[in-house]
Amino acid sequence: MNIALQISNILKNRKANLPEIEKQIHRWQIMKENFNSLDSTLDAVISDPETPGELRTVLKNVDTAEIQNSIPKVLADLDSLKERFSRDTINIGVSGQARVGKSTLLQSISGLGEEQVPTGDNLPVTAVKSQIFHSDKNIANIEFHTFNSFRESILFPYHNELALACPQTIEEFRSYSYPKNESDLVESKRIPSNITILEKLKQMQSGLWSYEDLLNQPPRQVDLTMLREYVAYPKDTEENTPQTCQRKYLAVKDVSIYCSFPSAPVKQLGFIDLPGLGELSASTEEHHLQGLKKGVDFVILVKRPGGGDGFWSAKDGSAVNLLDKARSFQDRKDFVSILINHDSRATSEQLTALRNHVLREVNQGENNKVFNIIEADAINPESIGKQLLTPVLEHLANRLDVMDKQIIKGTFDSYKAIEEKISDLIQSLNKNIKLPTMDGSKREVIEEKSNALIDDINLDIRQYKDQIRIQNHLDDEYSEQIDLCYNDILSWIESGFGDSPESWKQSAQKQIYRQNGIAGVALDQCNYVRVEISKQFTKLDNFFNNQLNEFFQEIAEILKRHTGNLLSETEPRKVLAEFESYLLNAQENGESTSCLNLADSVLKLRNLQLDYKVQLHPRVRENLNYIEYETKDADNNKVSQFADISSENLDLLFKRISDLAEQASYQTRIALNRDVEFPKLVLFSALEQFEDELIRSSDSVKEFRRLGFSYPAELWPGLFADIQSSMARISKIKTSINDIQNNLSN
């Protein structure tokens, strides 16, 4: 398989991971909200003057800070995963210090020139992160900062570095009075390197006139010939006249350049150009790291022999450390290769010295041990194609699928430690946040009340069961619904099967001409009419739904009538779901006392269905067999029911199909009326089963008592006034804990 096809398949396969990634993002966003809610609840209970001192002390010792601080990191990593697996390109980052040939390399790969990817021998030139994509288009898309993003990513890091308050608005920035020199800074910041940072801030302020109109602007497309002023620092001659020196690059958040690469073996390819590491910028390295994490599959770290940086320096070590953070869970050697740029200005001695220094300092004296070393001339497109692009793309074609699996598994596994901390916190909260202790006499009262609760609910269920048994009007209503469906079908048949007899015949005539006979028309119409008749009888589902709603309404009223203030929902099915939730989450003194059997009985009842297609259609389906193209004669041979009809006799064809449809409908009506007690029997049987499981199972008494000990104040309001307020406080906290627990188990 060639490289282009391999990479194309990898990009397609990545999309399959997106649903699970998005599910996890949603889950952790909810978890973040859960913990905000828990903190608010704890604060409210702590500040309540009625809260007992012992409980207040326990709550003050609850510390969620570590978990809360971890969740944004989880969400950021998942967001990076989503971006990685959503991309339609393989993105290769080009990294390294300033003036090592990164921009020259990108020119050789992309075919762009100085106006799009500026280079420079002395001063740093590239000011903005650029993304260059192989494309048939030749255009640049520029995304601008809002003032808030400009403040956050550019102004704040510089001001923070100098211990200066960061201006909140553009007007504050315009009129900000900066220290004249480093001696006016706080003592801890009076260091030589801060002179440069201070001067850069002053340059940003003095050049505000040139870029403030671009802040908050929507993205725009720019011709490639006009790009330089948006991505490059001013030239040295321009810096000499600060009053007229434009700094449009400060307003630029991102640039995406689209152009046709001269000799790229893969179309779905992008290169990410980042400002050089080691430049004096308070936020450059962090910005570099975030860019690598989000948008890069592989990194080329460029080194150039000769000059002051022609050896492996501490700055290079810092760059590798950043790349190590960015690689996440991928193998180091898979993610980064070092390019030694064969700069024509360097001597062979300088090249050998750099090669040997990298061998010793980076690869522990063994070729390609830690990083693969590639050597090519950045200014030579042919050298870059053969010696850099081809081996890098071959490597990615063979290893990228493995790298993807490593990063997704590592990311998912990484938050298991946080989940364990959350689980430990929940366990601790449940253990330490307990209901008020009940003495023996109160426990006896609750046991008696729980026994009475069983009897009261049972009595009402038995009365309702008897009521259903004798509800003959329900049978009459069901029979009437069957007749209504039947009459609607007859009207539909007489009307020409939903059109008109004449229109039906005209349509049949055309089909007969097209198929050269009536066989095809007769077969198609038999199939169509049979399906439509079945659909007409599904109207019974409206009747079934009404009966189910009345049934659930009655059960909900029985439960609410006997459970005090426990149930707050009003819609019947929600009442049942709420009751089930209380049964599942029952706790006493921080320990789970789930009423699993009672909860299961409620769940089964909630899942009750009355459905024509599922329960009735299979029982009456044989009656629709009257509408078949073929039937069987006395010798059990198949014969056509339309053999005696000529192609010209459309009236007879229409009548024959109508007769068959009426006969099938009539027989289906009879079959349904034969089973007219069906809805009543379904409801009665379901209620009888519910009664047996809720009231008479071996665990019923034990679990009703668990329910009573978990929610005494809600079940019998006023009876336990001394613990009711405490129960309310604990209940709020328990609700927050349960929300977190449910999210954790999903």
What is the topology?
Layout (H helix, E strand, L loop, with lengths): L2 H12 L3 H30 L5 H8 L4 H22 L3 E6 L6 H9 L19 E5 L4 E6 L2 H15 L8 H6 L17 H14 L1 H4 L8 E3 L5 H4 L4 H4 L12 E8 L9 E5 L10 H12 L2 E6 L10 H13 L5 H4 E6 L6 H14 L10 E5 L4 H34 L1 H17 L7 H30 L2 H23 L6 H15 L3 H19 L2 H23 L9 H13 L2 E2 L2 E2 L3 H11 L5 H9 L9 E3 L5 E3 L9 H25 L3 H18 L4 H11 L1 H4 L5 H25 L1
Parallel strand pairs: 1-6, 1-7, 2-5, 7-8, 8-9
Antiparallel strand pairs: 2-6, 3-4, 3-5, 10-11, 12-13
Helix pairs in contact: 1-16, 2-3, 2-4, 2-30, 4-16, 5-16, 6-8, 12-13, 17-30, 18-22, 18-27, 18-28, 19-26, 21-26, 22-23, 23-24, 24-27
Report what the structure shows.
With 746 residues, the protein is α/β, with parallel strands linked by helices. The chain has 30 helices and 13 strands. The strands form three sheets. It has a nine-stranded mixed sheet, with helices on both faces. β10 and β11 (591-592) form a beta hairpin. It is flat.
